[in-house]
Structures are given as C-alpha cells and as structure tokens.
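Model it.
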Amino acid sequence: MQYAFVKQLIFPLIKGGQEWQHITINGQDKKPKLYFSNVQWVILFLSTIILFKLTKGISKDILGYVISAFSITITLFMSLLVSIFDKFEKTNFETEKKTESEIIRLKQKKNFFKRFISITSYLVILSILIIVLSSMTYIFNFLSLELKFDSLTFNWNEINILLTIKNCIIILYRITMNYFLINYLFLTLFVTGSAYEYYISELNLRKIDV
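Modeled.
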C-alpha cells in the first residue's frame, strides 16, 4: 500500500468531513470567517481550561477505557455507514414527473446523505487519531508528567531549555487530545441531531388516511 494512495483517499475524506459541518441540507455553505467555527473556538478554549484543571492529564486507566470505547465506536460507525449507504442506493432520485417541491426534497435527501456519510466517516478517522494519541501516553511516559504552572519564569537565566521543550510538547499534546475528545462528542451530537431533524421531517410528510 503506497502512501500517495492513502493520502489520496484520506485527505479528501477529512476535507469533506470538515466542509459538511457547515453545509445545510439545502446546500447552503456557511463557512466560518476564521478557520474554526465559533463552536470550535469554544471547544479549543475549554480544552485549554481543562489543561489547567487536570495538571496531570488524563490518567492511564481512563485512557485505557478511551481506547477500548473508541475501538468499539469505529466498528459501530462503519456498520452505520454501510446501512446508510444501502438506504441511499434504494432511494429513487429520478426527477421525471415530479413537482418542484418534490425535486427540492430529493436534493435535500441527497445533501443529507452526503453530510451524514461525510461526517460519520470523519468521526471514524477522528476515533483512530484519538486512539493513537491515547496510546502515545503509554509509549512516552513523560506525557503523563504533572505540569507545574507556578514554577514558570521569564528570567532567561533560570530557564531550562530541555524542560521547556518537554513542557511545550506535553501542553500541545494535552490540548490536542482534549480538543479531539470534546469535538468528537460535539460532532456525534451534531450528526445525531441532524439525523433526527431529517427523519422527523420525513415522518411529518407521511399522511395517514382515515
């Protein structure tokens, strides 16, 4: 398996998963002014706050549960993707002899499938990244060291270069880990809410003849 082939598959998947977070089922693209959306900036802020609260980081026991849980979710999401795509395959998208409102509804259905599949696939990749990041704590023991912010100094003569580099790596690692975990939770709620909204709208269209 060549790296270029994997890159060709994974990068569009990640890009699509990020883009469809901002596209409605009507096809309206609401891109954030900055790279992150307002919600993602809040998640990043919360990730930093957690860093100060959990100075020892997430314990290895909890990370073990995280690895197990996300390994299971990968299987669940893959099964869900197969199920959703099967439903997509069985949907008739022919526009002949259909009214304008019915055509609009077909476009919404197609956009829903694209958004659901894109974000769910993105969640699978995110799960793998979280598992890899969690495993790094077991590989590099220094990542579980306690951060002591009260020992920070701006006196150049008192700065330990190696210790500073190590602390920077730990801080970057933990913020990234916290961000991915919270973002994963948010995206799971987002895709669940999106599915609920779509299914309810479909149910409301079905009339019961009395």
